[in-house]
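> call design_seq(struct)
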């Protein structure tokens, strides 16, 4: 069984932090399969286009209209900005049907050998970073086993049907939490009993990785501005924690 490490990024993000993601992963974890989904990067051994391009384009067109009525600086309504994970995970899951799929955000830096025993999806379901101190699950890491199809299918269905826009928030992790609650997929919370907003440094993930989340951490880690947000942040509402 292979270990597939999935993320998504644009060429701009690759130039900012994605190269560190890929180089640090390959240097510390030889034998794993990196799987990058990208709209604009050239296809290669590790980089793949969005397979559901038609469905993706339909969603983007619908999201443009829906977002017009919302505060553009509040991540809770940034459906387009935070949709790529869902399409990428579903694509990898059904490409590597017998393997374990692990999502790591593209601003993660790998510092050692991944402890797959600790991350292994519970009963071939899902491992995740649920948080009691914040409104939704931490999105930087999720592990999926072979029995995770129900949650992945429902997660994507929010986007394919447009029912995402009936939820209280429109980003990927609010939709993930809804799918997690509505399906019977086996699950394990790696951040249970950690009553903090930024749980990553207090979990097993900190033993082999660092999550450079938000403009400040990216600036410190990569020496560049947050090229993805495209502007100096005006409020904490713009930061998806």
């Amino acid at each position: 069984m292979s270990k597939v490490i999935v993320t998504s990024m644009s060429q701009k993000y690759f130039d900012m932090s994605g190269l560190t993601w890929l180089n640090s992963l390959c240097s510390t974890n030889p034998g794993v399969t990196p799987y990058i989904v990208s709209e604009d990067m050239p296809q290669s051994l590790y980089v793949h286009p969005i397979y559901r391009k038609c469905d993706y384009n339909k969603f983007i067109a619908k999201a443009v209209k829906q977002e017009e009525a919302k505060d553009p600086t509040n991540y809770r309504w940034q459906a387009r900005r935070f949709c790529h994970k869902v399409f990428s995970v579903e694509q990898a899951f059904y490409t590597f049907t017998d393997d374990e799929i692990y999502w790591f955000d593209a601003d993660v830096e790998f510092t050692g050998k991944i402890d797959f025993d600790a991350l292994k999806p519970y009963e071939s379901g899902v491992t995740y970073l649920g948080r009691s101190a914040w409104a939704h699950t931490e999105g930087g890491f999720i592990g999926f086993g072979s029995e995770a199809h129900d949650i992945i299918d429902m997660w994507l269905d929010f986007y394919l049907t447009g029912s995402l826009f009936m939820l209280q928030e429109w980003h990927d992790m609010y939709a993930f939490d809804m799918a997690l609650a509505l399906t019977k997929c086996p699950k394990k919370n790696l951040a249970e009993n950690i009553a903090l907003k930024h749980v990553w440094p207090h979990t097993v993930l900190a033993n082999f990785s660092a999550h450079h989340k938000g403009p400040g951490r990216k600036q410190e880690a990569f020496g560049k501005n947050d090229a993805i947000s495209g502007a100096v942040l005006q409020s904490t509402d713009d930061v998806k924690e």
